[in-house]
TrEMBL record:
GO molecular function: dihydrolipoyllysine-residue succinyltransferase activity; magnesium ion binding; oxoglutarate dehydrogenase (succinyl-transferring) activity
Name of the protein described by the UniProt record: dihydrolipoyllysine-residue succinyltransferase
Classification via Gene3D superfamilies: 3.40.50.920, 3.40.50.970
The protein's Enzyme Commission number: 2.3.1.61
Amino acid sequence: MRKGKQLPATQVPQPTAAELRELPADRLLEAFGRMTMIRVFEERVSGLYANGEVPGFVHLSIGQEAAAVGACWPLAATDVITSNHRGHGHCLAKGLAPEPMMAELLARATGTNKGLGGSMHIADPSLGIFGANGIVAAGVPIAAGAALAAQLRGRRDVVVSFFGDGAVAQGAFHEAANLAALWKLPVVFFCENNGYAEFSPIADQHPVPMATRAAAYGLEYVAVDGNDVEAVAAVMTDVVQRIRDGAGPAFVEAATYRWHGHYEGDPEKYRTKEELAQWQERDPLVITRARLLGRGVPQETLDQIEAQVQARIDAAVDSARQAPQPDMTVLRSSVYAARTPVAEPAWEPAADNEIFRTMDAVRLALEGELAANPDMFVAGVDVGKGGNVFALTRGLYAKWPDRLLDTPISETAVMGLAVGGAMAGMTPVVELMYLDFLGVCFDQILNQAAKLRFMTGGKARMGLVIRTQFGGGRSSGSQHSQSLEALLAHVPGLTVVMPSTPADTYGLLRSAILDPNPVVFIENRQMYGMKGPKPPADYLIPLGKAKVVREGTDLTIVSVSRMVHEAVAAAGALAERGISAEVIDLRTVSPLDKETILASLAKTNRLLIAHEGVTDFGIGAEIAALAVYEGFWTLDAPVMRVAPPPTPSPYAPNLERQWLPDRGSIERAAIALARVLFAIAYMTEALIAFGLEFYQIT
């Protein structure tokens, strides 16, 4: 293949001998039909959008049909593509029917994704279409995850990741390209270089050519005329075959041009009519039609194909218009996959029960599930040979060197491995070394893992676990001490788990791995050395179920993770003062076990919440709102919260001790709440006595 250079918007590469390989006339006719389908579909969508029938944003690829069809030409049904916001052509080229796509764009219940995805999020994992994506470059790490799944299973499947020239400036692209090259993943990075990143010409966006970027990661680089479907098909046939044979990833740059603006309604002040006209002279359909005529295909045959496509699209529009709109049932049912019911375990430790540590619980849970599930893998920074920075996975690499994967320090790529691997049917468990690092990879968690099942109308499999840890109290400073569970709990689609004991860590982690939904499993590093009774190997704890760890009658203390132990200690001290405190361990922050909280509140009539995240907008605020809204008539006193003030975690040990809640601060808050309790009781008794006396006088 030719070594190319970055192309100005008005230039295309000269064809090589490989690219000049002709398709048989019947296959070229098929390619013409596919391109015609894309063109007619998108031209119709443009009109429907202008008429207000297609809501939201629409990004069309008119003019780029040859790139989509040629890139998908050598792909099998088991191969995978990821796409971008301009993805209609890719989906159609991979085999998605236009009828459900049209219904999806018109926001109908019969749409590909039941009206929950729309133009930017078309996907059908059953066809290997892992999703168009509204976040630039977000599909690239997901493609790496799908490619890893194929590699781990020993399959010859290939993944093609479509993106525009603007996406190569994103960190997600660089992390995924680096990882793919390092592991020789079977993925094609297919750049449709249409000369513009939104409104900006490529010269204003990139200091080096695409070929230089590809070379930086050791990727094979191939340039091709993206408006010549035969050239693209020839190049991709060669590239895909080499990758199937184990050659590793490649970067293909297809020079092409979008005829419409970045989005429908774009005023397009950034380019000239002359430039557009120059590219329209190289219309992929006109080029292909001329070749077919030159090879003896009758004009009538081509006209018939165009008429058939037009009729099919007309019928698709009519059908979509008559289809029902989605209702709220699909909205609710598409967020989470149904969980297999797990009963609360009846196990109670005996006096001579074996003792183990929280860190042992993590390792044993991973070990058991790795042994039971050949589709499970563990990935993250130093989780393999090094056994994790806290020694949590030590010994697992020796047993499963192909499934304990040491990644580069590339949190976005790691999360993409989880998302793409889960969609491909694997069971990924990936590690985010510190919860504080959430910010560098949040898109893959917030917009991909949490939303892809929903946006595909429930089609995308998304069973994955993100293990991470947090914990103040060690002078780790503001960037290594944060308790960010409220941020995650606010994202629909995520399950957030925070265990407080070694046994709970074991049972909850196993349940998280078995769960069909994305679970963020947050451990407290202060508790890795904590010891407790070791449960049986088959021990499971249901997700979303809190536990009353101490019975009481005067007030309820709700807490989670390490603060549970502080709350229990405080309850012991309160008992000496004659105050009976009930302590609830949430275990799962989201979904919140409202029933257990409200049942306890109905018994004690007073609520205190203690957590390590800062007070303002923390999980305590949500629990307080629950108490005030659903438990209002059982409340006999204001709801109180014990949590750090709303500042970053301090470094100085004396400041951190004052900043972080402990058993003393919980006890003091409970005493204050109890004073309200006793004051109300006294006043009630006094009023009753006064009322009786008044009645007797009258």
